[in-house]
Design a protein that fits this description.
- The chain is an alpha+beta fold.
- The protein has a two-stranded antiparallel ribbon with strand order 1-2. A two-stranded antiparallel sheet has the order 3-6. Strands 4-5 form a two-stranded antiparallel ribbon.
- A hairpin with a 3-residue loop joins strand 4 and strand 5.
- The protein is globular, with a radius of gyration of 17 Å.
- It starts with a helix and ends with a strand.
Length: 100
């Protein structure tokens, strides 16, 4: 469901975080669109903890590191399986923000 065009539009396969913003303000979507945690009476009990943990780790990484592709000439392609995988992985270089 995360890549279905009838739910997310023709660019469903593209990474576009701004699709959840309206003039810079977060616009929540129906929780039933996200299959990882489900919704309603059978919602995952660890959903809030998982979101909080994701935000803390992301903030810490972005605060201390600048990320860039290890090979900037390589085209990034996806492999569709049960979950979306990056074909061949995504080698990154992490550079300490103190050094640049």
């Amino acid at each position: 469901m995360g890549r279905m065009t009838y739910l997310w539009g023709d660019d469903a396969g593209d990474f576009r975080p701004e699709r959840w913003l309206n003039n810079g303000v977060f616009q929540p979507q129906s929780p039933f669109k996200f299959t990882a945690f489900h919704a309603g009476p059978r919602i995952c009990l660890g959903k809030d903890f998982a979101y909080r943990q994701m935000k803390i780790v992301s903030i810490a990484l972005i605060r201390f590191f600048h990320f860039k592709l290890a090979n900037e000439t390589k085209q990034v392609t996806y492999k569709t399986l049960l979950t979306l995988h990056i074909d061949g992985g995504l080698p990154l270089c992490a550079v300490s923000r103190k050094t640049f």
